[in-house]
Amino acid sequence: MAKKSKFQCPIGMHDILPEEQAYYQKIYDVVSNIADFYGFGKIDTPIVEQEELFSKGIGLATDIVNKEMYILKTKGGDSLALRPEWTAPLVRAYIENGMQSLPQPVKLWYFGPCYRYERPQAGRYRQFWQFGFETFGESSPVIDAQIVQIFYNVLQELKLKNLITEVNSIGDSNCRPYYKKLLTSYFRNRVASLCVDCKRRLKENVLRILDCQEEKCQSIKSDAPQILDHLCEECHKHFKDVLEFLDEIGIPYELNPYLVRGLDYYTKTVFEIFSNKKEDKSLEEDSKRVALVGGGRYDKLVKVLGGRETPACGAAAGIERIKDLMKSQEIKLPKEVLAQVFLAQLGGLAKRRSLKILEIFRKAKIKVAESFGRDSLKAQLNRADRFGIKYTLIFGQKEALEGVIIIRDMQNGNQETVKLDKVVEEIKQRLKK
Ligand code: HAM
Fold first, then answer.
1. What separation in Å is there between the alpha carbon of 17 and the centre of ligand 1?
2. What is the pLDDT of residues 361-420, one digit of tens each?
3. What digits encode the pLDDT tens for the residues 225-240?
4. What is the CB < 6 Å shell around ligand 1?
5. For burial by CB atoms within 10 Å, which of 170, 172, 218, 240 has the most?
6. For 76-162, where are the E strands, in sequence order?
7. 266 among the known binding-site residues?
8. 126 labelled as ligand-binding?
9. Residue 49 and residue 131: Cα distance in Å, rounded?
10. Atom of ligand 1 nearest to the CA of 293
11. Digit-coded pLDDT (tens) for 42-70
12. Residue in 57, 66, 242 with CA at minimum distance from that of residue 168
């Protein structure tokens, strides 16, 4: 076991080691290809923003703002927060960079770390990476369906199985206040049977009771009034259209009237994509449904954060959760291209010139392994053997003076001396065979 070091990674955060990078790279490649196809432009924003952007944008009563933000005071006295998500920063960037004056919709995507001071557990980290897609300036339900489709496509392209897409509508400022009143009076009459958290939610954000996972709240929830029965005409039509578009493009989905999301900015459509691990007996009940993607429409947020009223819709996915699922579903990644050539050097002059030879091969796009720290030829040939190398180039004092190099075929041990300026061509020919 590795010795415990004096310093450790902060709790809930991880180093991304070289062997893990291939997953991030694969996810990045799939996401950026899809973004390119659908016409999304990539955006990066600072990792910190004014704290108020999130408290105003996500909502003061949400867990993210209430309990989970990393806040720091700068020397100048500003209160900044590590971004817990990307939507509020994107809205800030959209307004600040004058994107409201561009032809709409403006479509943006992102890929990077977020920070939430959560209780760490499997699939729940304090530093985690998200990628996301956001569309600004378009109110049509076709956009909602397209956002779901884009995420579904990414997960399919990554070959993930057992995906479940859940959708709901949580109405807008026309119909939601009345529904919340109904819900409040329903739960108030049953407050004694609610869990401690839901008693608090009843005061702060009654909708959140609907996605409580506590056993004791389940039966009370199941008889609660449902939002879909109380949508105004506009929200009802919008939701019906979204579902029709999803049917048309053949995305399987389930209606979940309890899906409300943990951020306050949503209007109308909300959705999540889960991986279903029902069969996995080793998992706790609440880790059998891991949300990979979450999002929806947020038509009021641009205005709330100081812009003109602008409809918007988007979602984000958790990259570690996707990576963990790729591993557990044994999804293969493209194999790393291994070097087929090894450069062994002997003596001071040869070692100095070897750095140049390596550069010639790099420019010719031929991967060459070396072990410049070792001086004995035997040790270097052993290394080449261990890498499964086809050809070793041997470059000693004599070769360096004569401008030649030895090519050794590692399978049969045959050696041939060639001119240094012909070696790349010669190796290319041999590798072709
Ligand atoms: P969210 O549901 O909070 O939504 O996060 C989106 C995804 O990020 C989750 O489905 C999950 O995969 C991942 N995630 C969240 N928290 C953690 C964590 N502590 N550890 C690991 N993964 C995590 C948002 O962030 C919204 N901004 C999505 C959105 C974009 N809505 C509209 N546009």
1. 23
2. 999 999 999 998 888 999 999 999 888 999 999 999 999 999 999 999 999 999 999 999
3. 999 999 999 999 999 9
4. 85-87, 116, 118, 123-125, 128, 130, 132, 134, 262-263, 291-296, 298, 314-318, 320-321
5. 170
6. 79-82, 106-115, 127-136
7. yes
8. no
9. 18
10. 10
11. 999 999 999 999 999 999 888 899 999 99
12. 242
Residue 333 CB neighbour total at 10 angstroms:
11
How would you class 32 by CB atoms within 10 Å of its CB: exposed for 0-12, middle for 13-18, buried for 19 or more?
Answer: middle
Q: Both 307 and 345 in a single domain?
A: no
**CA–centroid distance, residue 433 to ligand 1 (Å):** 50
- For residue 269, give both structure tokens: 């459509």
Cβ burial of 296 (10 Å; 0-12, 13-18, 19+) is: buried
Specify whether 272 is located in the same domain as 314.
yes
Domain-located, residue 6? no
290 Cα–ligand 1 center, Å: 11
Share of the chain above pLDDT 90, in %: 86
Cα(175) to ligand 1 centroid in Å equals: 26
149 is in an annotated binding site: no
87 carries a ligand binding annotation: yes
CA distance 294 to 79: 28
In which domain, by residue range, is 42 found?
18-175+231-328
Full-model pTM: 0.92
Do the annotations mark residue 267 as ligand-binding? no
Q: Give the end of a domain, one of 328, 354, 381.
A: 328
| Distance from Cα 272 to the centre of ligand 1, integer Å | 10
Cα 111 to ligand 1 centre (Å): 12
- Same domain assignment for residues 138 and 274: yes
Mean pLDDT of 7-32: 96
pLDDT for the residue 283: 52
Task: Give yes or no: residues 301 and 345 share one domain.
Answer: no
Give me the CATH number covering residue 387.
Answer: 3.40.50.800
Q: Is 116 among the annotated ligand-binding positions?
A: yes
Mutation to probe ligand 1, out of 54, 65, 130 (largest number of atoms < 8 A from CB): 130
Distance 131 CA to ligand 1 centre (A): 9
Write out the two tokens for 68. 């989970």
CA distance 180 to 367: 63
User: Residues 27, 53: one domain?
Assistant: yes
User: Which one of 128, 136, 322, 324 would you pick to mutate in the ligand 1 pocket, going by the greatest count of ligand atoms within 8 A of its CB?
Assistant: 128
Annotation-wise, does 86 bind a ligand?
yes
Long-range contacts of 98-104 (CB under 8 A, 24+ apart): 99/136, 100/137, 100/302, 100/307, 100/308, 100/310, 104/136, 104/137, 104/138, 104/310
pLDDT tens digit string along 136-172?
999 999 999 999 999 999 999 999 999 999 999 999 9
